[in-house]
Each structure stands twice: as C-alpha cells, then as structure tokens.
Amino acid sequence: MNESTFRKRKLLSDLVSFRKHVAEPASSGPAPEEEGTGRASAGDRAFIRLPAPAIVCSVLRGRHGEALDFIVAAVNDAFAEFSGRSSAGCRGRRLVDVFGDESCPMLDACAASASGVKTAEFPVQVSGRRMLVGVSGCAENELVLLFRDVTHQAETHEALESDNRQFRDFMARGDVMVCRCAPDGTVTFANEAYRRLCHSGDGLARMPFGLDHVPDEDRAAARSAHESLSADSEYGTYSCRFRTGAGEERWLEWREQVLLDSRRLIVGYQLAGFDVTAGKERAAAEIAVARAESDGRAQEPAQPVGGFTGTLTVCGECKRTMDGDGNWLPFDRYIETHTDARVDMSICPYCRKRSYPALYQR
To answer: Is the dihedral of CA 46, 130, 11, 262 positive or negative?
Structure first.
C-alpha cells in the first residue's frame, strides 16, 4: 500500500468514526440553533471521544453579508491545542477568524463540499505547520474538517531530496563505488561503478549492506562496523575484501555515513568504497621482503660489534643516545658513528602483527 492510499484510508476511517459518534443520540445538552448562529451541534459531545492525534472541528454553514461563511461549531482538544485557543474560544468564531489568511483554501473546500462536490485532501500551512485537510459532510448544514500534521514527513522528504542532490553529484565519479541502503540494510541504490564491479543488473545484493560480496572471514568485522554506527556516531571507516562479479578479490576502504531526519532518526545509510588493492598489495610485498630478510639474518651467525666501553646514556622516551660531547643522536646514527657496525632497518614479528594484523594472519 503506497502512502497516498494509506492517507486516504486513514482519513476515511477517522471520518466514519466521527460520523458514528455524531449519530449517537444525546441525553442532554442544548439543541443546535438555526444556520449560521455558531452554536454547538450534536457533534460537540462526540469530539470528546475522538483520539488525541486527530485534529478535528465541525463548522456550520452560514452567511456573512451576502457571502457564504462557515462558523466553528465544535472542536476536539487536539484542535484547541493546535489553534492556541480554548475549546470555548474556538466555538462560535468564523473559520476565517480562527485561521486568518491561511483559511482561504479551507473556505474554498468547504464551499465546494457544501455544494455537493467531493473534495480530496488538500495541503495547507497553519502556524508554521504543514497540514493535510479533509472535508466531509456530517449533517445538514454541517461539515467536518479533519487535519493531519505532515510537517515531519515533509521536512524528511525535503532533507532527503537535498541529500539526494549531493549524492547524485558524488556518485557521478566513476572511480568510487557508491551505494545507499535502507535502515534494514537493503541496498536501494548503487552507482555505475558499484554495478560494474559486481556485474549486477537490477538485483543489487541479496544480503544487507551488500555483504554477500564480502568473503566469510571478513563479513563479521564488516557487519560489526555497520552496527557501531548510530545517531551519535554518524561516520565510520573500515577496510575489507570484496569479491567482484568476476570472482576476483579486491580490497576496498568503505566510508559510511548514517542518514538522519530532522528528529535524528536513522532513515538510511550511505557508503562510498575506494579500491585500495594496490596499496594493500604493495604493503604485503614489503612485509614479505622484510620477513625474508629477517629470517635470512636470523640464520646467519652473529658478528661481534666492537668499539663499546663504559656506559651508554639512552633517552627512555625517544631512544636517542648521548655521545661524549653531550650531543643526542638517533641510536642508529650513534652505532654507525662509534662502531664498525652497519644498521639495517627491518620489522620484528611483534610490530608486524600489530601494524598489519590482516596480512600477517594470511
């Protein structure tokens, strides 16, 4: 069911409920006066039983001079709060006096409905709020106006439209994989670069956030990165392997952003993927070379290093070493200056595992 159909059914349901209440006989209370007096009708008592979210008023058809006019006959508590007046302060007032210039579309719809013309919901802006108003005949000379506040939906729509414009500009870049996901992780959009790498047509992904393209061993970490995002932590970056439609594995760095509405509720996610395979392969090659050199040197017999006597003064923080003249030199430079040894840089297994955990495990 689309949003438009849902709105119409909701309006019809509320109006049917209201008509049932109006049709109930009243045990006491004043009878309605002649047309245009503004005195409360039988619907006045029915408003008490309407649910609070429903903003409803009934109006009586009357005359203001030669012109057709509408007088507020009854309101529910939600309408009184919405209009900024008490229920008694609304009753008996002309519709135009309650809403001012913002009442023009309501007057037109009331006039059309009073003439037997069916009217659909129409948008109005009242006191800075965006409303959808439905008008329906309730009894002779009496109409019911049902207001629905759609400010939040309208602001959310505008925010998403603005974000969509920025998104379209960004996704036009051919070197970045861009996709957008619903709050449940369903991929709702992907740019050409994403589709090209995945070899996908309309079926973007079977699993949330496109995780079916992520190898099993990286999937848990990628899912954890998604779950760590929230309204208070809107951005995240992580790297994982990505299996292309051709079966090739690439390394992608994903930059993810949470999409929020005006109430800071999550309405979706936006991801941009950058191919960092070349950098990962270069780092892996460097580590392999360093590991081979380290293993080779470990098998060579240790050579004595001469030239040291006495005590070396070494900084506990930066590891610089003080020479005989009071100068603080980097440790490798001190060794090469004061001994016949040559310093060759490598990486120990501990640092290798700490700096490159994924590659080290492989």
So the answer is: negative
Report the alpha-carbon distance of residue 6 to residue 12 in Å, rounded. Answer: 10
- pLDDT digit string, tens, across residues 69-123: 888 888 888 888 888 888 888 888 888 888 877 777 787 878 777 676 666 778 8
Asked if 76 and 50 count as a contact pair (C-beta separation under 8 A), the reply is yes
CATH assignment of 155-275, among 3.30.1330.10, 3.90.1170.20, 3.30.450.20, 3.40.47.10:
3.30.450.20
What is the Cα–Cα distance from 145 to 107, expressed in whole angstroms? 11
Identify the three-state secondary structure at position 252: strand
**Are 14 and 146 spatial neighbours (Cβ–Cβ below 8 Å)?**
yes
Please give the model's pTM, rounded to 2 decimal places.
0.39
Tell me which residue of 146, 111, 120, 124 sits closest to 13, measured CA to CA: 146
Cα separation, 239 vs 236, in Å, equals 10
**What is the spatial distance between Cα 340 and Cα 304, in angstroms, rounded to a whole number?**
10
Q: Where in the chain is the domain with CATH 3.30.450.20?
A: 3-149, 155-275
**Which contiguous run of DSSP H or E holds residue 144?**
strand 142-149
Residue 49: how many CB atoms within 10 A of its CB?
12
Strands 266-275 and 177-181: antiparallel
Q: Confirm if 268 and 183 have CB atoms less than 8 A apart.
A: yes
Dihedral pair phi/psi, residue 199, rounded to 5° = 55, 40
DSSP annotation of 205 reads -
- Assign 214 to helix, strand or coil: coil
Residue type, 338: H
Angle CA 5–9–14, to nearest 5: 150
Q: What is the CATH number of domain 3-149?
A: 3.30.450.20
Judge contact between 106 and 145, C-beta under 8 A.
Answer: yes
